[in-house]
Design the sequence.
């Protein structure tokens, strides 16, 4: 029996303010939404293949699921995106050469208007251990932690990234 593949992932998140959310994600995704209705907005991304919708329901916004993230293909792309975040004053934290989720990664973090954590990372290689700080939970807002960061946003628009070789694929 052949298993069907899923052509695109769908995520739906509750939000507290549609206007702030649209402003953040227009910059973060570098594109306008496909659909906006009263209390609702939907983006369709080709790379990565994702449908993400936001439903305005402030009473349902919670920070108990961890984080979302994007893996980039090259260190050059990561650095370009991180510099944009830093220059805009939106970078919440960067981690270079960290072992998180049993993978060696370079990454940085931003938060949307409802404090949903977004990780942007480059995967170097699998690792046999996590950074001991993550294991003990002694790093504030550590990898895969659910603590909130300061509310900031990130500009990911019109990037020009030099090609660079890639190694493997991995994720938190």
Sequence:
């Amino acid at each position: 029996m052949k298993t069907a593949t899923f052509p695109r992932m769908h995520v739906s998140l509750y939000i507290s303010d549609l206007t702030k959310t649209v402003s953040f994600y227009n910059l973060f995704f570098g594109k306008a939404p496909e659909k906006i209705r009263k209390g609702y907005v939907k983006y369709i991304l080709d790379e990565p293949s994702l449908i993400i919708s936001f439903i305005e329901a402030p009473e349902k916004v919670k920070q108990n699921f961890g984080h979302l993230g994007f893996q980039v293909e090259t260190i050059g792309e990561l650095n370009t995106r991180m510099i944009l975040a830093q220059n805009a004053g939106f970078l919440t934290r960067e981690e270079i050469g960290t072992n998180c989720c049993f993978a060696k990664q370079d990454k940085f973090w931003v938060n949307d208007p409802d404090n949903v954590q977004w990780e942007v990372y480059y995967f170097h290689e699998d690792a046999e251990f996590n950074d001991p700080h993550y294991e003990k939970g002694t790093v504030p807002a550590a990898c895969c932690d659910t603590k909130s960061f300061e509310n900031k946003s990130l500009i990911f628009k019109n990037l020009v990234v030099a090609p660079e070789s890639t190694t493997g694929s991995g994720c938190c």
Remarks:
- Residues 8-61 form a domain with the 2,3-Dihydroxybiphenyl 1,2-Dioxygenase; domain 1 fold (CATH 3.10.180.10).
- Strands lie at 9-15, 35-37, 40-45, 50-56, 68-71, 93-100, 103-111, 117-126.
